[in-house]
Q: What sequence folds into this?
């Protein structure tokens, strides 16, 4: 399955960048922001100057996504880049962006120590095993936790959420409106064959 | 800016939290009960102040809270900041009572987290003694509450259809159309038809279409514990209305005790603490306690005085007694077809066929057909320990053909199930914490067994492979805190009168499920809302 930019925009809807979804989301946002969608937009953008993800960071997130997404998924780079720019740069606060960058730095540091090369230079199999060796597969996500827990929280779960809380990822499992995605009120009424 | 583990609190430590002068009414608690009373009385021109123990949460945080609820952070799923010294309690009954999973402190109260299923109690629920010789009758009946139920449905914006053949009589349609049935409802309908069980729509306090300045449900599927779209009703709706009508709502202002005048018959002030460590006195002509079914009796007990050595409004000794819940009974499994679960986080079909019983036992059962049985793939992905193709294979294996039937089951009030003070432990302000003694009882056990029989029969009619049954031994409470300041006409047996005023204090009313005499087997909040609207009228008349 090829992920597209559209899929990334849909994934952003799940991640709370609700300005990108349809009327339902906009209405929702009006209610949540006391009726003034524009000023909410401004709030979100307020601090976006200070920390943004570097190109290396987004490339590394895509590499991690390749390791944790199923092999039938393609188009990962553009998906992750659109998603992470939209979400991490726009919605999240500085502390969160810092957390993502630091966790990626840790992954890169482990790659250099264990395999003598930057993470991005490793082949994809080794990239996947670095995550396992860090213990990010078994770790519980925790922003203030151990290195493994922070990698799980800021990096692995970030990209897993992007996929599996979006229609594209949900469809891989047979659920086009997964939890976390505002997919409307039709899908729950539909049978499997329609 | 203050911060608890949940969402950010939008008002910080430096917010003005000084008392309101010349207040007509002081409301304690900003859940649905307190918010409705406040908005109603403020709209009638009364000067209203609401004291709320918890913070104001920033609605802009809801998407992040939603995400944290899907992939719990720090191993904890709680996104509303419950726990710690502020919320400490003891559970010493036969059954452990998980209090903090069953309430939220904050502007909006527990409805921030709730599921939003809303019901009128059936007529029988008010007449348990005269019909079955069980427990006691309420001093008011369904007919007395009927107009308030209709009003409460309008206030909460209930989506529903008048298609429940077992429901109590109604005078007008629901304000919003019902949510159409789910695909899995149609699977259940087949089995139920075979078993001659009538199914019908489920009323929801969530918008099936845009209404009241709020979005229609957009299908995030995380209703419990948070609705990011605002489609699910929560009491911030009425807090906003109260504030627009001039009420002042002070957050992070837990009331420590209630102070009465020299006669001991009239409340003078609610003494509350603020984050800066200062205690204030909020004086008012009338007081409405709306702090939920555990904290209301606790506050009355904490306010003991020379004149009221056993706590306020407690001449009967019933304050804190008869703590009643609803029990969960359920069964689930898989069938050999797709069931399309976890698209939305609420139910669309149910059955009240087993609600109005002939014999005393088994008691009332509300059957629920879940739309969210089995695992949610995204939740599994975020908490699993596999990646890549292996993870996808795990998700495909786990998701797809689960079904589950739940039920709420009636529990009878029991004198020995109660809230008291545990003097061996104090909260963050040095007050003894609530101690909960709770047990299930034979009536509920036998009713749960009956519910299980029905649930298993339905699943068997579908040739399901039954994977779990929650029965009398592993049942749990449904987060409904009923009975702890019961209503009655006899001051020696009850705490409030039918106008919801305490027998002992002439200017103190209670708006809560704590005044219910019995709880039936239906989620209580519409009845709480109806009583709050009725109570507001009585307070207004008195002022
Ligand atoms: C997970 C879950 C699901 C639920 N689902 C449903 C459902 O589907 N349908 C239904 O009908 N009900 C449901 N409920 C129950 C429902 O939430 C409650 O019945 C309802 O919120 C009670 O309203 P209330 O205003 O009486 O109390 P609450 O909503 O609990 O509000 C009480 C408020 O008082 C404040 N307070 C407490 N002590 C003090 C003090 N000393 N000083 C100042 N303030 C104080 C608290 O902080 C709180 O904000 C659910 C509950 C939970 C936990
Ligand atoms: S399913 Fe509807 S009510 Fe539930 S969280 Fe989503 S939008 Fe809110």
A:
């Amino acid at each position: 399955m090829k992920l597209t930019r559209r899929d990334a925009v849909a994934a952003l809807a799940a991640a709370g960048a609700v300005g990108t979804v349809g009327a339902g989301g906009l209405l929702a946002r009006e209610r949540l922001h006391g009726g003034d969608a524009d000023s909410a937009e401004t709030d979100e953008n307020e601090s976006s100057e200070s920390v943004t993800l570097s190109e290396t960071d987004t490339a590394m997130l895509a590499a991690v996504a390749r390791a944790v997404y199923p092999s039938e998924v393609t188009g990962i780079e553009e998906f992750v880049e659109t998603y992470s720019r939209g979400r991490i740069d726009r919605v999240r606060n500085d502390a969160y962006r810092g957390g993502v960058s630091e966790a990626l730095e840790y992954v890169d540091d482990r790659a250099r120590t264990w395999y003598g090369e930057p993470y991005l230079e490793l082949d994809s199999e080794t990239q996947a095993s670095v995550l396992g060796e860090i213990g990010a597969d078994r770790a519980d996500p925790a922003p203030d936790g151990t290195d493994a827990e922070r990698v799980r929280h800021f990096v692995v779960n970030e990209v897993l959420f992007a996929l599996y809380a979006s229609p594209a990822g949900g469809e891989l499992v047979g659920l086009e409106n997964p939890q976390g995605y505002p997919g409307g009120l039709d899908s729950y009424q539909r049978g499997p064959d329609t | 800016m203050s911060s608890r583990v949940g969402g950010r609190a939008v008002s910080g430590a430096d917010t003005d939290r000084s008392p309101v002068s010349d207040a007509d009414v002081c409301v304690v608690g900003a859940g649905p009960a307190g918010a409705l009373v406040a908005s109603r009385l403020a709209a009638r021109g009364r000067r209203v102040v609401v004291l709320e123990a918890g913070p104001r949460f920033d609605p802009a945080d809801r998407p992040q809270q939603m995400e944290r609820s899907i992939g719990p952070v720090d191993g904890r799923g709680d996104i509303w900041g419950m726990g710690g010294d502020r919320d400490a309690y003891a559970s010493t009954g036969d059954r452990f009572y998980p209090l903090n999973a069953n309430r939220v402190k904050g502007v909006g109260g527990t409805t921030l987290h709730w599921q939003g299923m809303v019901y009128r109690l059936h007529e029988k629920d008010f007449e348990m003694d005269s019909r079955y010789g069980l427990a006691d009758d309420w001093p008011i009946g369904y007919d007395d509450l009927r107009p308030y139920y209709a009003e409460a449905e309008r206030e909460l914006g209930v989506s529903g259809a008048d298609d429940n053949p077992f429901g109590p009589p109604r005078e007008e349609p629901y304000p919003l159309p019902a949510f159409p049935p789910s695909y899995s409802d149609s699977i259940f309908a087949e089995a139920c038809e075979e078993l001659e069980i009538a199914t019908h729509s489920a009323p929801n306090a969530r918008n099936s279409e845009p209404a009241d300045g709020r979005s229609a449900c957009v299908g995030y599927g995380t209703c419990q514990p948070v609705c990011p779209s605002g489609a699910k009703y929560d009491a911030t709706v009425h807090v906003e209305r109260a504030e627009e009508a001039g009420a002042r709502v002070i957050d992070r202002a837990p009331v420590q005790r209630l102070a009465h005048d020299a006669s001991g018959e009239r409340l003078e002030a609610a003494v509350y603490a603020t984050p800066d460590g200062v205690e204030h006195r909020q004086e008012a002509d009338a007081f409405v306690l709306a702090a939920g079914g555990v904290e209301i009796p606790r506050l009355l007990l904490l306010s003991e005085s020379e004149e009221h050595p056993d706590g306020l409004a407690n001449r009967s000794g019933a304050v804190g007694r008869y703590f009643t819940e609803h029990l969960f009974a359920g069964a689930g499994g898989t069938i050999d077809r797709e069931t399309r679960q976890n698209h939305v986080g609420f139910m669309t079909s149910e059955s009240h066929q087993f609600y109005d019983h002939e014999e005393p036992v088994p008691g009332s059962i509300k059957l629920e057909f879940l739309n969210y049985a089995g695992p949610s793939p995204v939740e599994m992905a975020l908490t699993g320990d596999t990646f890549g193709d292996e993870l996808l294979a795990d998700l495909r294996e786990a998701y797809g053909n689960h079904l589950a039937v739940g039920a709420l089951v009636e529990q009878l009030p029991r004198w020995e199930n109660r809230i008291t003070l545990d003097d061996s432990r104090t909260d963050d302000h040095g007050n003894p914490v609530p101690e909960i003694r709770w047990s299930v009882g034979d009536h509920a056990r036998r009713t749960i067994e009956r519910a299980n029989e029905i649930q298993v029969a339905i699943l068997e009619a579908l040739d399901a492979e039954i994977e779990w049954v929650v029965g009398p031994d592993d049942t749990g409470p449904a987060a409904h805190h009923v009975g702890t300041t019961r209503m009655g006409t006899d001051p020696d047996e009850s705490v409030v009168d039918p106008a919801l005023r305490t027998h002992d204090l002439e200017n103190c009313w209670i708006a809560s499920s704590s005044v219910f005499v019995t709880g039936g087997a239906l989620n209580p909040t519409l009845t709480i809302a109806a009583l709050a609207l009725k109570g507001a009228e009585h307070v207004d008349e008195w002022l």
